[in-house]
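ok here's the first one, seq then struct tokens
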Amino acid sequence: MNQSRNKRPAKPVDNRPESWREAILDRRHLAFLGILILLVLALFVTFILLLPRNQAKQALRASTELVTKEKRDLDAHILAHAQPLSDNILTYLGGELRLESYTGQQIFVHQLAAQSPVSWIEQGQAIVADRNGHNLVLIQDQAVAYEHQLDGSFAGASLSASGQALIIDELPNDKAKVHLIASDGQRILSLGFDKTGYPITVSFTRDGKAFDVLILNSSGSTLKTVVRRYDLSGSLLGQRTLEAENGLFFGLLHDNRDLPIIYSPSQLVKLNFDEESPIYSLDFASILGAECVGSNLYLIANTQNDAYYSLYQVDGEGQVSELSNNVGRAKLVNYSTNTNKLYFVVNNVLFSQKVDDQTSLRSASLDAEILSYQVLPNGHINVLTGAGARMIRTP
């Protein structure tokens, strides 16, 4: 009984014609081929969906020819207190403000008492001031143009090509003034904002005939952002007020018509003092930096809360185009009229792109993390890295 129960039944004999069995095999082959084709199509669609991001990664990793014109290694202590200024190196150490060439040749040494020194570089000029004190100097044409004593401490600036300076002077009790200072260091005027809020940012218009002040107004139950325009005599020319609903507005730029563009960590707004409503208001998940070129704005931002940041172009009417995607957490966004290129940094890589050519993204890898840089009129780039100073040229 047990043996008969364990005996496996005999395999039935297939008496169907051979042609029928061949047809079954053909259908199995066709089914297998169909499944294979579907898998290939699925992989192809996935590849297509990922292609722009993969292409961007390849573009960002590709290096262009890098020519080092000059090189000077500096230790970390000096680099922590250095800035590129034109084709020289500006440092502040031990109470001395020093400007030197790449070869180490001394251009000037100036004594400056500063507990917490900060610098502001614009238009080939530099302000060095004490964040916790009153002292301030302006450097022009490789020399100290003047010293100035603030009522409080330095909190921001804007420099014009004519040598005038706008200074935010932070006072006790969360108050501040904005001073307009002439090229000889004398104050032309001072504006107070006791009742209207605190000035966050100041900027001359492109023509240098007026300036804008970005103000945070905290009176009432809500925060508001106020943008005011003044002429050089201090007369108010225009004002616009926005709810600070998407965070603190801190960036202030001007297009080629001198219309103000302000941005917060997640919002971009273009204003016209002759119109009540903004020209456009755009929301992003995160904005890392922006620069205005002509009527267009270029910014590093992302539209979703993820690690994928893109380089965007926003035209004068607010139309957004993605120029390069997956650029990483880029910083130090800057435009140079000398080369008509937009520059930004990711770690030790300096990227550049011509604003009139969306396919011209180029990169140059340096020997250490890029701390700061300045594009010179001859197209060379004065770069400070974690290893020292590098004067480079890229195609």
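and now the second one, same deal
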Amino acid sequence: MKKFLKKHFKANPISYIGWLGVFGIIGTIFFVPVFIPFLLCFTFFSYTKMQADELFWENVRKASSRGFWTVFLLDIGVFVWMFIRGMMMTGKIPKVDNPFSANLVTLPSFAVEQYIIAFFTLCVNLVVMILVFTISMMKFRRQEKKMIEEE
């Protein structure tokens, strides 16, 4: 796999993730809120000229693990909170239909609120994951430069 990547992709393979930023531009133009966080993907173009050696891939593994676990724990917290909120609010909500309806489906306003919270969490997850990855990579890069200067 590494030979294939080196042969066909001359730049650092991580830098190609930067092209996902185009979705962010599309999201901004057509106001698709879930696409707007993709603008952060343009930060991956900064890895184009960075050499992809073993230390780099180890740092990518560490940074991506940090991003994954941060978002995973954030998701667990939000969904537990949504579950508790749902259990406490279910009996207190009047059975009033919401103006948000499509074809044959009418949702109660509380369900719409829960969907909005879940949608907002999805958008925040993408932002948090990319920020944690980028900040971790910057930290590892700084540590690497300090080690080189000390030698």
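notes on #2: Strands lie at 97-102, 105-108. The two ends are 33 Å apart (CA to CA).
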